[in-house]
Amino acid sequence: MGTIHKTGCVLCAQNCGLEIEVEANRIGKVKGDKTNVKSEGYVCRKGLHVAYHQHNADRLKYPLKKVGDKFERISWDQAIDEIANKLKSIIDQYGPRSFAYMGGGGQGCHFEVPFGVRLMRGLGSQYQYSALAQEFSGAFWVCGRTHGKQYLHDQPDVNNTDVLLVFGWNGMQSHQIPQAPRQLQRLSKDKDKMLIVVDPRVSETAKLADIHLQIRPGTDALLLKAMISIILSEGWANEDYLANRTSGFDQVKSYFENFDIRSALKTCELEFDQVREVARLYATRKSSLRYDLGISMPSRFAVCSRPMSCRKKFSPIIPRDCGRFSSPV
To answer: Which whole-number Å values give the CA distances from 215 to 166, 279, 308, in the listed order?
Structure first.
């Protein structure tokens, strides 16, 4: 019997609580930590297999230096001294801005950022990059325009929402919110809640949905424009919210007027009546939206990612600053 430790999983951004049994300095049994206030004992198969990653035979455990055509083990002191001397010589020759920090992101690797960023600052460089510069650059930019800081991200309030509208997110497999499978299953079973999925595929999440809009790939922005046009034409928009909590809406409102909604939805390969009902539910009930990789990569991602994402009741149109960053399709 080993010693039980409480820790957190680093294999996705949720960092669910784990209880691990350690014996002879190796992880043995792993289970969810029921006392963790965020995950409440939930853990996915990645977290349950954390020992595989911790004790993988290919994991780098000590410094290796390439000598000739092979790598040789060296001491930490030697590695640190050689790296420091190399850094100094490069700075002396090319200046501090010849260095950039590459690392950190939305997974477990955010733990390394305080060290990496401060190292760059100490060297005199301001350059920091991560995989998110390619994978979610649009999302970060939109969040910066909406909230004032790129690292201020919003999430659906799944505990209190009446309607969860999902674009391109298969939360049953790719979690991205705490206890996603539990939350989605709860929503799908609650007769007073609605789970609406927009996805070309019949994903595991789509199979749970009350409504599945099996959209033509690449037409998400067109669907959003059609939904906003429906909401405005039906008088479902919250005019008080638009007047007092948004900016730039008058500049973009004309894009949604006199718009051929039915032709647009035909292009999306969706039925008008079903989309109208989705728009009505989203606009007239307490709603949340969740989008993910399904719409994060296309050229019009900035349009898809923000116009419908306001979480206030009866207020699905353009949160503050959104009218200034892009034109609707």
So the answer is: 12, 15, 17
Assess if residue 197 is contained within a domain. yes
Compute the distance between CA of residue 233 and CA of residue 265 in angstroms, rounded to an integer: 16
Cα dihedral angle (91, 93, 94, 99), rounded to 10 degrees?
-30
- Does residue 145 belong to any structural domain of this protein? no
The answer to whether 320 and 246 have CB atoms below 8 angstroms apart is: yes
- Domain that includes residue 297, residue range: 152-324
Q: Quick one: tokens of 231?
A: 């909401």
Please say whether the beta carbons of 32 and 25 come within 8 A: no
> In terms of domains, do 275 and 189 share one?
yes
pLDDT band at 42; cut points 50, 70, 90: very high
Contacts of residue 201, defined as CB under 8 A and 6 or more positions apart, other chains included, come to 170
pLDDT in tens, 164-184: 999 989 999 888 888 999 999
